[in-house]
Design goal:
This protein has 141 residues and is mainly beta. Helix content is 5%, strand content 47%. The chain has a single domain, classed as Jelly Rolls, CATH 2.60.120. The protein contains one helix and nine strands; from the N terminus they run βαββββββββ. The termini are close together.
């Protein structure tokens, strides 16, 4: 038997930070339901993985990230990366308030067969939105 790739889409729709309502205008422009303010820690979201999981990667859709010291936890363990979520930089002197998709890897051994969890932890002095997260991984066929 070989390995196959699989993925899970996880909907957060949460605001992490210190200032509730700071992104209400941006959310209104999107025409979507309000994002839930969670302060420093997102909800813990569960997802299932099949047999013999291996390494993987995460795509995370964020809005207005000012700093790069936020953390992504898989099953309560911090992913060993210098930049779990990268800061959005200003382009042509425009504010860095836009949606961005960031990529980070999940090392072998972080995912387990069956139920897994993901949580985002915000660093200090930042307010940003998390929309969707896609977790892609390899597992036994």
């Amino acid at each position: 038997m070989g390995h196959k790739s699989d993925f899970r889409i996880i909907h957060f729709q949460e605001h992490l930070g210190e200032h509730e309502g700071v992104h209400d205008e941006a959310v209104t422009e999107l025409g979507v339901d309000p994002f839930t303010f969670k302060e420093k820690s997102s909800s813990i979201k569960s997802f299932d993985v099949g047999r013999d999981p291996r390494e993987g990667y995460i795509l995370i859709q964020t809005y207005d990230v000012d700093f790069s010291y936020h953390r992504i936890l898989i099953n309560g363990n911090d992913i060993p990366s210098n930049f779990d979520i990268v800061a959005h930089v200003e382009v042509d002197a425009h504010e860095a308030r836009y949606w961005r998709i960031w990529y980070t890897t999940i090392p072998n051994g972080f995912l387990v067969e069956g139920e897994n969890t993901i949580q985002i932890i915000a660093g200090d002095d930042d307010d940003f939105l998390i929309n969707d997260v896609i977790i892609n991984f390899r597992e036994k066929d």
